[in-house]
Design brief:
- This protein is α/β, with parallel strands linked by helices.
- It folds into 2 domains: 152 residues, Quinone Oxidoreductase, Chain A, domain 1; 130 residues, 3-Layer(aba) Sandwich (Rossmann fold), CATH 3.40.50.720.
- It is built from 9 helices and 16 strands.
- The strands form 3 sheets. Strands 3, 5, 6, 7, 8, 15 and 16 form a 7-stranded mixed beta sheet that branches.
- Bound molecules: NADP nicotinamide-adenine-dinucleotide phosphate (NAP).
- The site of NADP nicotinamide-adenine-dinucleotide phosphate has 29 residues, from helix 1, helix 3, helix 4 and strand 10.
Length: 315
């Protein structure tokens, strides 16, 4: 089988397409034939060595965090709810999704609901769980709470806007002006074009209950740092982009950098919501297997609205 592996940090090309034996599942693992893998900022952040301290990897190592695929075999001690031929999805903290096949602990596999395509399902694992878990990370949500979402046009941000609106929150999203209609179309009550306006001027200082930070590169334009000022007393920033936030929490405010974890029930619920049209997730482009590095580069460049996927069944 073919797998995209990291041989060294910050190298050119960033990953090598290597030929490997198909792995054998342990008793608790499933062997998956990958249908679609999704591209995430964490892929190129890992490849550049940006998270090497928190997440050291032995080389060579297959990257790829989330995927949709079909179970081709199951170890003897896997849950009885799973069977050969099931379409499944999850986020893999052990990585390995940029491969034609992978083995993974079966208890984190969510089933793709009937009626949802593999490509549509592949929009969900990391962004859906990231949006859901970060939205709830700072405590209970009350209808009418004011939330400022940085990176509201991104794959995580777009889902967070919709999930926050479904909870009855008042949502203001920041993104570049070309994405205004997209973000407002998702239900945002207000929009700030970060290329032309200061979000502080639009939302007002001391007025926001919760800031969700999904900016492509953490710390860009001091977004996280500047956000403390717009929070009410006791308000919180939940950042997925800037881990340094934890060392900078001012008195009277709260800050979180939550670890996003697999959640079978939550992901299956998001799958049903997507299938039933309760949430929308856009596929921007589906690359062929041989084009994965091109897709990774596009993800790093930013500016794409929607999910970048790789169809591993197409050479
Ligand atoms: N810690 C975790 O487990 C975890 C999980 C998922 C994601 N993340 C992080 O979350 C971030 C978003 O991921 P993603 O997949 O949603 O990326 P994405 O789809 O590329 O979205 C990036 C977003 O950042 C916006 N942006 C860029 N510069 C900005 C600025 N100065 N102010 C406000 N918005 C700005 C972009 O807006 P325009 O395109 O409209 O300019 C876009 O909405 C990344 O940093 C990623 O690493 C972390």
């Amino acid at each position: 089988m073919l797998a995209y592996r990291l041989h060294a940090y910050a190298s050119t090309p960033p990953l090598h397409l290597d030929t490997l034996p198909v792995p054998t599942p342990t008793p608790t693992q499933a062997l998956i034939h990958t249908s679609h893998a999704a591209l995430n900022p964490i892929d190129w952040k890992i490849a550049l060595g940006h998270v090497a301290e928190h997440m050291p990897l032995p080389f060579p190592y297959t990257l790829g965090v989330d995927f949709v695929g079909t179970i081709t075999s199951l170890g003897a001690n896997c849950p009885s709810r799973l069977k050969k031929g099931d379409r499944v999805m999850t986020l893999s903290r052990a990585l390995g999704a940029f491969a034609e096949s992978l083995t993974i602990e079966s208890d984190i596999l969510a089933k793709v609901p009937d009626g949802l395509s593999d490509a549509d399902a592949a929009t969900l694992p990391i962004p859906g769980l990231s949006a859901w878990q970060s939205l709830h990370a700072a405590g209970p949500l009350e209808p009418g709470m004011k939330v400022l979402i940085h990176g509201a046009s991104g794959v995580v941000g777009a889902l967070a806007v919709q999930l926050a609106k479904a909870k009855g929150l008042h949502v203001v999203g920041t993104a570049s002006g070309k994405n205004r209609e997209f973000v407002v179309g998702l239900g945002a009550d207000g929009f700030v074009d970060y290329t032309r306006e200061k979000f502080e001027d639009v939302v007002g200082m001391g007025s926001v209950d919760l800031v969700l930070d999904y900016v492509l590169v953490g710390g860009a334009a001091n977004t996280t740092e500047r956000s403390w000022g717009v929070l009410k007393e006791g308000g919180a920033i939940v950042s997925l982009a800037d881990p340094t936030i934890l060392g900078k929490i001012p008195e009277g405010k709260r800050g979180f950098f939550p670890e996003i974890v697999p959640d079978v029930e939550g992901l299956e619920k998001l799958g049903r919501m997507l299938r039933d049209g309760e949430i929308k997730a856009k596929v921007a482009k589906v690359y062929r297997r041989g084009e994965l590095l091109e897709g990774m580069e596009a993800n790093k460049a930013g500016g794409t609205t929607g999910r970048l996927l790789v169809d591993f069944r197409r050479a």
